[in-house]
Write a structure and sequence with these properties.
mainly alpha; Arc Repressor Mutant, subunit A; three-stranded antiparallel beta sheet; 63% helix; globular
């Protein structure tokens, strides 16, 4: 699906301003809904066993391959290397990830998911699939394709905005 050419937004136009407000409210509601304690508990557990969303994001990436260089992991997570390091440290403390030196270059730190980490990820992944199934069942086949395309474009537009507005050191 080709990305259409962007058209300027005129916030002085009441119709365009209304659409922008609807998108803003939906974005806020998605953020709030995704952070509701009931949903977080359903996805990530409760009590001492609960994971944080950043830890789950890290597990999501770690299970994709046997081992990751810390820099590559940070890039895949779209975070600073220090943020990825802290996420891995938290996962290490609870036995879901492990770090070791790269056998080919001892200066490079590699990180991988443990068997317990794979198990925790599989459990949470199954719960998220249940939620995704329920959400997607609200749409017919064509709408699902459109939803996917629109969400992908939303993420790309957000990434482009961040890239052009990132604070320069």
């Amino acid at each position: 699906m080709a990305t259409p050419r962007p058209t300027p937004i005129d916030f002085d136009d009441p119709a365009q301003r209304e659409v922008a407000q609807r998108v803003g409210r939906a974005w806020r509601d998605i953020r709030r809904g995704a952070s509701m304690s009931a949903l977080v508990e359903y996805f990530f557990g409760t009590g001492d066993d609960a994971l944080e969303s950043g830890q789950m994001d890290t597990l999501d990436v770690l299970v994709q391959q046997d081992a990751w260089r810390m820099g590559d992991l940070a890039e895949a997570l779209r975070v600073d290397p220090s943020t990825a390091t802290r996420a891995v440290q938290r996962l290490e403390r609870i036995g879901l990830a492990a770090r070791c030196a790269n056998p080919k270059d001892k200066r490079v730190v590699m990180v991988s998911v443990t068997d317990d980490g794979r198990s925790r990820h599989a459990e949470a992944h199954a719960r998220r699939l249940d939620a995704l199934r329920a959400i997607m069942e609200a749409y017919d086949g064509k709408e699902r394709l459109q939803l996917a395309a629109y969400l992908e474009r939303f993420v790309m537009a957000l990434d482009e905005f961040v890239a052009t507005h990132r604070a320069k050191p």
